[in-house]
Structures are given as structure tokens and as C-alpha cells.
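Note to self: keep these together.
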Amino acid sequence: MAGAIEFVDGGTVTSPVGFLAGATYAGLKTFAEDKLDLCILFSELPCAAAGVFTKSAVRSSTVTLDRERLAQRISMRGLIVNAGIANTCVGEQGYIDAVEMTRLAAQKTGVSPEEILVCSTGIIGVELPMALIRGGLDQIELQGSGGPDMAKAIMTTDTRPKETAVTFELEGRTVHMGGVAKGSGMIHPNMATMLSFIATDAAVEPGFLQATLSEIADETYNMLSVDGDSSTNDTVLVLANGAAGNSPVSAGSPEADTFVEALRTVCTHLTRELARDGEGASHLIVVDVAGATDTADARLAARTIASSNLVKSAVYGTDPNWGRLLMAVGRSGAAAEEEKIDLFINGVCIMEAGKPIPFHRDAVVALMRQPEVTFRLNLNLGDGEATAWGCDLTEEYVIINSAYTT
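Structure:
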């Protein structure tokens, strides 16, 4: 049974002991007084590391390099991230520049380049201006209070930083876990749907860390959809430095459940924030599916509803057009029998056992004006359940993406 997990007020990726971060404006984004676009996360101790990545056949060289380094099963010490340019679709130079970024970060922090991971995000098809990055690195100051600057530096079309941290106990020792994420558009379930970096001062066995991240990413980040498109750079990385002094958590250990629940809590919070900040969004959409034949079917139905443009448009217009939800379930590929489905909108029963329930339309419209709209469906076929997150589709989304590079 998992122990108590509490959120840290003002928590971030450097809340765990031994993690430092710093950021600067190097000139990769269009200038503004408060902009940052280059950052480093560094651990004072060696870390077990795990990652999940985009499944796109067109991917950034940073994804290729990180996969190679994680496959070596060596300890990691940190990562360097730039925003504004994706380092994708630029040929062999992309890999050369990714390696160079890790070398520069390693030189600054006094570790081996092989102990540094790298991520990029931004416009595809543009080479990295390495001279700007070299100059920018000189301006970065690593400090324990640097997490908020890192959260800000990785943003592209995000309207606000996304960060959180929790605290819990392992073997009677206080442990912290914190994370940051970026993403507002080009987000759809296809691992990992954006960039997210999580740090913990827990000691964790590397194989268990990887297995746990992969499992929880499928429950959280892979249940998120903003616009049906997934990126060439999608990456989630977790670093665990063991500064808390606990025995390494492994599969079957007494503390495993607590660690898993802590990681789930952090990832769920960041997933909700990513959906809430979808490009042009005015509503967070939460889709809870229960009673599916199995978990896979529940996820399939929930994701299909959350990513439906018709559902998203209805939420934007606060239109309780529940037929669109049934349409999405029907085409999802999940097993469904109309005469068994129960449906609720923000807690109001709309359908029971496949039969429409009379409801006060104006009251439901008023409920849908709230910042968060929840659809709950019980398929009443089995024990499978899942939650998906999304956002509404607005005119602002088109405006943002019609002029992204201009």
C-alpha cells in the first residue's frame, strides 16, 4: 500500500536534494525581456535514468542520442535543453550539434559528455545556431532555486510554466520528486507527447525506474491530446540520484508502491497542466471511462473522445451535444453496447442504460462554462477503466498555428 504523498508548495524539478538548474536567453527565440531559451538540469550525484520517446519515424537527433546513451545503462548527471529550434530534419549536422551540446554542458559541469542528455524543441528544419548556444552557456548559473527558470526556458507556445513537486517517505526517510513540462500544441498520444523532466532524490534500481516510467507514461502523458498531432521531439526523462539515502527501490520491494504512486501523481499533475494550456484552450476536458472490457479498451474509448474535434468544439461552445460522445465511442474500436452505456456531464446523468435521461439544458450549459468539463461513461461490460485529458478547440488555435513561423 502506498504511503502518504503530499504536494510541495512552490515545488519544482530542483525540489529534490542535490539537483541544480539554470537558464538564460541565448537568442534562439524572438527576443522579449522575460524570455529564456537555454537551460541545464544537473545532479551533484550520479543518477539512475529512464526515458520514453516519440514513436514518430521522423525524429530529432536529440531523441536518437538520448536513446543511445540510456541504452548504455550508465549513470547520468544531467541534461541540457534548448527551446525555439527543434534540431530536426537538418541531416547529419543535427546529430553533430546534439553531441556538441552535451560536450559543452559536460565541460561546464565537470562531468563526462556521456553523462549528459539533451533535448530540443521548436521549429523543425532549422539548424541550431551553435555559436549562440556556446555563448549562452557561459551565462547560465546553476543553483538549487533554478527550477522555475528551467520550466520557463523550455516553453514554446506555452502561456505559462508547468512544474510541481511532491514529498513522501521511503524507509522512514523524507524523499522528494519534482518535475517540469512544456507543450501546448502538436500533442497527441504517441509517446511522449511533449517534453517533461522529472527528478527525485530517491535511490531507484534503473530497470525498475524504466519499467515504472513506461507504465505510468501510458496512463498519463499518452492519455493526453490537444490537436491530434504528435511531435518529432517528444521526450520524458527521469533522473534519480539517491540523495535521500534509502535502499534502492526495485520491483517487489516494500516501498515500490509508494514510489510508483508518487511518480503517477507528478505525471498526472503535469499532464493536466499540459491539457489545460493547450493552444488557444479555454476549457480542460477530462474523460473518465469505466466498465470497459479491459484497460486497453477503456484507454481507446477515452482517448478517442478527448481527441474528437466535434467533442472539443462542443465544449468550446458549451453545447451538451452528448451524441458526439456516443459517436466517438462507437468509432473508437472499443467494445460497446449502446443499451448498456451510462453517461454523465459534470456529474449530471444524461443517459442511463442506453436511454436518454431528461435534463435541464440550461443548467448543464452553465456547468460546461466552468474551466473544467468532465465526461464520465460507464460501458458496463467489464472492469477496464481509464482517464484521458484534452482541451477545447477554439479560433485561437488556428490563429496560433497559421503564423507559427512568421
